[in-house]
Amino acid sequence: MSYRRRTSPAETAEWIILAGAAFAVLGGWIPWMGHAPYYFVAGVALIGAGILMLWKRSAGLWWYFAMFAAALIWSIFKVGLDGWSLLPRLFVLALIGIGISLVIITSNSTAARPLRVAAIITAAIYVVAIASMFWSAIS
Fold this sequence. Notes:
Layout: H1 9-27, H2 38-54, H3 59-79, H4 83-106, H5 113-138
Helix pairs in contact: 1-2, 1-4, 2-3, 3-4, 4-5
Transmembrane segments: 12-32, 38-55, 62-80, 86-105, 117-138
Keywords: Membrane, Transmembrane, Transmembrane helix
Organism: Paraburkholderia hiiakae
Protein backbone atom coordinates (compact mmCIF):
# COMPACT_ATOMS: atom_id res chain seq x y z
CA MET A 1 0.00 0.00 0.00
CA SER A 2 1.38 3.36 -1.01
CA TYR A 3 0.79 6.49 0.95
CA ARG A 4 1.45 9.75 -0.80
CA ARG A 5 0.74 13.04 0.85
CA ARG A 6 1.10 16.37 -0.86
CA THR A 7 2.09 19.45 1.03
CA SER A 8 -0.50 22.18 0.89
CA PRO A 9 0.47 25.79 0.20
CA ALA A 10 -0.91 26.75 3.63
CA GLU A 11 1.28 24.17 5.35
CA THR A 12 4.30 25.42 3.42
CA ALA A 13 3.45 28.99 4.43
CA GLU A 14 3.35 27.95 8.09
CA TRP A 15 6.82 26.41 7.80
CA ILE A 16 8.12 29.58 6.13
CA ILE A 17 6.71 31.69 8.99
CA LEU A 18 8.33 29.35 11.52
CA ALA A 19 11.71 29.54 9.75
CA GLY A 20 11.36 33.32 9.57
CA ALA A 21 10.65 33.51 13.29
CA ALA A 22 13.80 31.49 13.99
CA PHE A 23 15.84 33.76 11.72
CA ALA A 24 14.40 36.91 13.33
CA VAL A 25 14.79 35.78 16.94
CA LEU A 26 18.25 34.26 16.59
CA GLY A 27 19.38 36.92 14.13
CA GLY A 28 18.28 39.66 16.52
CA TRP A 29 21.35 38.97 18.66
CA ILE A 30 23.86 39.49 15.87
CA PRO A 31 23.61 43.32 15.64
CA TRP A 32 24.31 43.52 19.37
CA MET A 33 27.64 41.85 18.67
CA GLY A 34 28.56 44.48 16.09
CA HIS A 35 27.61 42.66 12.89
CA ALA A 36 25.07 43.36 10.15
CA PRO A 37 21.37 42.85 10.95
CA TYR A 38 20.94 40.70 7.83
CA TYR A 39 19.50 37.62 9.56
CA PHE A 40 16.95 39.66 11.51
CA VAL A 41 15.82 41.47 8.36
CA ALA A 42 15.73 38.18 6.41
CA GLY A 43 13.63 36.63 9.19
CA VAL A 44 11.11 39.46 9.06
CA ALA A 45 11.01 39.12 5.25
CA LEU A 46 10.41 35.36 5.57
CA ILE A 47 7.56 35.98 8.00
CA GLY A 48 6.06 38.48 5.55
CA ALA A 49 6.35 36.05 2.63
CA GLY A 50 4.82 33.27 4.72
CA ILE A 51 1.89 35.44 5.78
CA LEU A 52 1.24 36.47 2.18
CA MET A 53 1.32 32.80 1.15
CA LEU A 54 -0.99 31.88 4.02
CA TRP A 55 -3.44 34.51 2.77
CA LYS A 56 -3.16 32.91 -0.71
CA ARG A 57 -1.58 35.99 -2.24
CA SER A 58 0.72 35.55 -5.21
CA ALA A 59 2.84 38.33 -3.78
CA GLY A 60 4.24 35.77 -1.32
CA LEU A 61 6.21 34.10 -4.12
CA TRP A 62 7.57 37.47 -5.24
CA TRP A 63 8.30 38.61 -1.69
CA TYR A 64 10.35 35.46 -1.08
CA PHE A 65 12.13 35.87 -4.40
CA ALA A 66 12.96 39.51 -3.56
CA MET A 67 14.33 38.38 -0.19
CA PHE A 68 16.49 35.78 -1.94
CA ALA A 69 17.74 38.37 -4.45
CA ALA A 70 18.61 40.73 -1.58
CA ALA A 71 20.40 37.86 0.21
CA LEU A 72 22.31 37.11 -2.99
CA ILE A 73 23.41 40.72 -3.38
CA TRP A 74 24.37 40.97 0.30
CA SER A 75 26.31 37.71 0.14
CA ILE A 76 28.23 38.69 -2.98
CA PHE A 77 29.01 42.06 -1.41
CA LYS A 78 30.16 40.35 1.79
CA VAL A 79 32.26 37.44 0.42
CA GLY A 80 32.58 37.95 -3.33
CA LEU A 81 32.02 35.17 -5.84
CA ASP A 82 33.64 32.42 -3.76
CA GLY A 83 31.30 29.43 -3.99
CA TRP A 84 32.32 27.90 -0.66
CA SER A 85 31.58 31.16 1.13
CA LEU A 86 28.27 31.67 -0.67
CA LEU A 87 26.95 28.16 0.08
CA PRO A 88 26.20 28.68 3.80
CA ARG A 89 24.50 31.98 3.10
CA LEU A 90 22.33 31.00 0.13
CA PHE A 91 22.02 27.23 -0.29
CA VAL A 92 19.20 26.65 2.20
CA LEU A 93 17.33 29.74 1.03
CA ALA A 94 17.52 28.50 -2.56
CA LEU A 95 16.29 25.04 -1.52
CA ILE A 96 13.36 26.58 0.33
CA GLY A 97 12.63 28.68 -2.76
CA ILE A 98 12.58 25.55 -4.91
CA GLY A 99 10.22 23.94 -2.40
CA ILE A 100 7.88 26.92 -2.46
CA SER A 101 7.88 26.94 -6.25
CA LEU A 102 7.21 23.20 -6.44
CA VAL A 103 4.29 23.46 -4.03
CA ILE A 104 2.74 26.21 -6.16
CA ILE A 105 3.36 24.27 -9.38
CA THR A 106 1.94 20.97 -8.11
CA SER A 107 -0.88 22.25 -5.90
CA ASN A 108 -4.43 21.42 -6.79
CA SER A 109 -5.51 24.90 -5.87
CA THR A 110 -6.84 27.41 -8.30
CA ALA A 111 -3.45 28.99 -8.86
CA ALA A 112 -3.57 30.94 -12.07
CA ARG A 113 -1.39 29.94 -14.99
CA PRO A 114 0.79 33.08 -14.78
CA LEU A 115 1.58 32.26 -11.14
CA ARG A 116 2.57 28.71 -12.06
CA VAL A 117 4.78 30.02 -14.88
CA ALA A 118 6.36 32.48 -12.43
CA ALA A 119 6.95 29.62 -9.99
CA ILE A 120 8.67 27.60 -12.73
CA ILE A 121 10.88 30.57 -13.63
CA THR A 122 11.84 31.29 -10.03
CA ALA A 123 12.58 27.59 -9.42
CA ALA A 124 14.87 27.61 -12.43
CA ILE A 125 16.66 30.69 -11.06
CA TYR A 126 17.15 28.97 -7.69
CA VAL A 127 18.56 25.88 -9.43
CA VAL A 128 20.93 28.06 -11.47
CA ALA A 129 22.04 29.83 -8.28
CA ILE A 130 22.80 26.49 -6.58
CA ALA A 131 24.61 25.17 -9.65
CA SER A 132 26.64 28.38 -9.90
CA MET A 133 27.68 28.17 -6.25
CA PHE A 134 28.79 24.57 -6.63
CA TRP A 135 30.53 25.29 -9.93
CA SER A 136 32.40 28.19 -8.37
CA ALA A 137 33.31 26.06 -5.36
CA ILE A 138 34.77 23.16 -7.36
CA SER A 139 36.58 25.18 -10.00
